[in-house]
Amino acid sequence: MNIGLLLGSVADEFSSALCRGAESAARELGENLIVIPGKYLDQHSEDPMERFEYQYNVLFSYGKSRSLDALMICVPTIAPDVSPEAIRNFLEGFGEIPIVTVASKEGYPSVTFDNRSGLIQAMDYLIHTMGKKKFGMLSGRFGNADAKERYDVVKLFLEANQLEFGEEQVVFTGMDDWSEDAAAKLLDQNPDMEVVVCTNDAMALGAYEEIKRRRLQIGQDIYVLGFDDIEGAANADPPLATVHANAMAMGHQAFMSVYRYVAWNKETNPRIQTSFVPRESVGFYHTDEENDILQFVANLNADSDVAYSAGKVVDYLMNGSGMSADVLRAREAFMEFYSLYFQMILEDHIDERKVVELLRRFKGIVRAGLLDMIDSLKFKEIVELAMYQVLDKQHSKTDGRLIVQLNTQMDHKIYEYVQQKIQRERYERRNLEFDVTRNMRNILMMNVDAEASYSTLLRDIYRMGVTRSYLYVFDRPMLHNPDDVWKLPEEMLLKAYTRGESAYSVPRTKQRIPFNHLFRNQFFDERDVSCYIVLDLFIGPRQYGILVCDLPCRYYSLADMMSYQFSTAVRIIQMTNRARELGHQLEESQEALAEHKVSMEVTGLTDSQTGLFNRIGFRLHAEEVLRQAQEQERYIVVAHADMDYQNRINSQFGHEEGDAAIRGVVAILQELKGQRMVVGRLSGDGFGIAFDTNDPEDAERLREQLEAVTEQYNRESGKQYNVRLSMGVSACCCTGELRLEDLLRQADDDLYLQKKKKKSFIG
Predict the structure, then answer these.
(1) Cα separations (Å) of 471 from 24, 494, 547, 567, 649?
(2) Which of 21, 101, 260, 618 could crosslink 110 through cysteines, CB 3.0-4.6 Å?
(3) Residue 23, Ramachandran bin (φ over 0: left; ψ between -120 and 50: alpha; else beta)
(4) CA dist., res. 199 & res. 383, Å (int)
(5) What is the DSSP letter of 500?
(6) Other residues' Cβ atoms within 10 Å of the Cβ of residue 111
(7) Whether the predicted pLDDT of 446 surpasses 70
(8) pLDDT (tens digit, 9 = 90+) per residue, 715-741?
(9) How far apart are CA 19 and CA 532, in angstroms?
(10) Cα–Cα distance between 213 and 183 in angstroms, integer?
């Protein structure tokens, strides 16, 4: 079964954790996960670096492929500030495919957070324990269901406690905003405010900056509460109190729910519990639970049940982690470690062999990456507390030395693990850049065959942990401007794929894959269970294709960079291939001329009647203009001008006047002709124009200039009739593969529309 997950950018912590949870459930069930990340619906950035990010949303349409059996759609990350009607239209666009919505209810089966439970705990603590009465709120806009529910909880709880909550106590802002300006407005409106409640942690950390700018002490002068418990919350200064919402558990439950929905036609709507995490930003240093668990460890004695004690500690460390296979594996490993550790410290003396065994087990935990499942600071705090019990019992110096050495080595391994994790990500990022750049160099410098270039491009991403990848491209890049409606491709070309370290080119006869078979075709081995991500390949307004690969979730922060690198590489391959084709065509033309002993100068490339290039001459010179425009990434303008009413001139005034009218057209076109402009006669009354430019508006200026020159000619000609021309124009930026035939066809289509507007025949 192929199950898709549609969501916003996978680089943020929430989305990454959601994917990890879905991946763990997919592997447990033996099904495929296809992650399809876009950006944000109906949002256009004025930032030049982000103005083409709307292209990522093309990927959402790939969820309509019939090779997907069901979809999980995380609406809040895709449409944080979109109207309910627009969201409904977006979801209905997927037709009959089964859908489970994630983190919001949209009339479909859903998996959501229980925003109330954790937030009520937090509000109760702030009001009844800390005695706070004056609240303000930075709220997400109500287009986001979580923002609305969290606002309602705060409002109702304050009203139930007879506390004021007026309009001036709330400032609305985007869910992904850094919110310094919104925080400034809220503080200005409420100078005596005691608590700032924020819809999420990103807003809260933005509020931190404004509060510190005003020289207020967070956790003393003013309290700040967030929501989500992102990684940056615990590391903030001071640590941010928040509501823990386990995105990994949500992803796991979402996959399980959609699987039951499809496999058993069983609809479930689970709610993921949330919990209050008090920290220094609300004047708190240890939760009751922390105090209880630390007191429990401090009171361990010879009568303690070691297994029960280990279980209690592990439950505390892994609270809210869900029940995925990875979590269960981590729970078992930590249970074994703590059981052995507690057993050892409760004995009369420290057995050196057990110290060695404990260190071996701990190193195994680190190698397996299981430290990511817990808070390593809490882990250290508990083992250090147990260590001091040994030292307090006045064991022998040898016992003390062994237990201190054990804890020191574990501390070192934790530090080493964190540093290696940071360095590994940097190293892998550099490797990816180097590998793709090296492949592009090989493609350009080593004359690699066009088809082989695609497999060369895929080969080295195996070092990123990618064991399955599929590179799809379009026949020709698809132009997609911001206001255009994306047209689903009927088929795509599968150029290359990988299996482990081996990369394969797909034979030309088998490359065309129907859209509804993108994720289920003869090149996808259904015996392999994989979790894929779909990366968009585009440059500017042009779409080149997609890369489907099983990039591990831990590397999703590199997804955008991979998209940029592969987009550039595919573009280079296609441009290089086009240059080779043009080179071969030129060589063939030169060989043909040489065989007939005819030079270019005396070949019939001009029209005898007008002196302009004939159809062959125009095409040759226009192709050269196109080539130069592609090399310099300039715009090319191609126009088809057609004389109106030539037959009526011939019949009414005679063929001599008809010929004179043609000469008049030539005079008009010669008046237009610029230094870089190519003009030719394509047919009896049809003429072609081609030139390159830096300004696409030159296309419309050409049409206006033609109109002005024609009017002047008719005023001065003294003829009984007017010479009239209709002109169709095509203008494109040469940032991808273009063909002259396509540009002429677009100009012809425009010419047809212009013909409908032609003026009267008689002047």
Answers:
(1) 25, 6, 5, 11, 57
(2) 101
(3) alpha
(4) 35
(5) T
(6) 27
(7) no
(8) 888 888 888 888 999 988 886 677 888
(9) 10
(10) 11
Mean pLDDT confidence for 678-701: 89
- Quick one: pLDDT at residue 690? 92
Strand order in the sheet with 724-733: 678-681, 686-693, 635-644, 724-733
Question: CA 739 to CA 723: how far, in whole Å?
Answer: 32
Over the chain, what is the mean pLDDT? 83
pLDDT in tens, 186-201: 999 999 999 999 998 9
Residues in the chain: 763
**Per-residue pLDDT tens for 489-525?**
899 999 999 988 888 999 988 999 999 999 998 898 7
User: What is the spatial distance between Cα 311 and Cα 335, in angstroms, rounded to a whole number?
Assistant: 6
Side-chain half-sphere exposure of 626, counting CA atoms within 13 A: 24
- Amino acid 282 reads V
Q: Which of 261-265's residues contact partners 24+ apart within 8 Å by CB, and which partners?
A: 261/70, 261/98, 261/100, 261/109, 262/1, 262/3, 262/69, 262/70, 262/98, 263/1
Only one residue has tokens 């009647």, namely: 609
What DSSP state is assigned to residue 199?
A: S
Mean pLDDT of the 34-51 span: 76
Phi, psi of 616 (to 5 degrees): -70, -45
For strands 70-73 and 2-7, give the pairing: parallel
**Mean pLDDT across the stretch 572-577?**
79
Between CA 580 and CA 260 the distance in angstroms is 53
SS3 of 448, please? coil
Rounded CA-CA distance 182/191 in Å is: 14
Lowest mean pLDDT among 205-209, 417-421, 646-650: 417-421
Q: Are 681 and 613 in contact (CB under 8 A)?
A: yes
The residue among 334 and 256 whose pLDDT is bigger is 256
Per-residue burial over 204-222, b if 16 or more Cβ lie within 10 Å, else e, is: bbbbbebbeeeeeebbeeb
Instruction: Say what the pLDDT of residue 305 is.
Output: 80
pLDDT > 80? residue 393: no
Q: d(Cα 617, Cα 621) in Å, to the nearest integer? A: 6
For residue 428, the model assigns a pLDDT of 65
Checking 368-371 for CB contacts under 8 A at 24+ apart, the result is 368/329, 368/333, 370/329, 370/330, 370/333, 370/334, 371/414, 371/417
pLDDT tens track for 590-643: 666 565 544 444 456 788 888 888 888 888 888 888 888 888 888 899 999 988
Q: Strand 542-549 vs strand 468-479: parallel, antiparallel, or unpaired? A: antiparallel
The dihedral built from the CA positions of residue 439, 445, 446 and 447, taken in this order, carries a sign that is positive
- Return the CA Rg of the chain: 34
CA 631 from centroid of its chain's CA atoms: 29
The Cα 75–Cα 83 span in angstroms is: 12
Q: Could you say which DSSP state residue 494 is in?
A: E
Which of 15-19, 68-72, 91-95, 718-722 has the lowest average pLDDT?
A: 718-722
User: Which residues touch 466 (CB under 8 Å, ≥6 apart)?
Assistant: 498, 549, 550, 551
Phi and psi at 228, nearest 5°, equal 120, -35
- For the entire predicted model, the pTM comes to 0.62
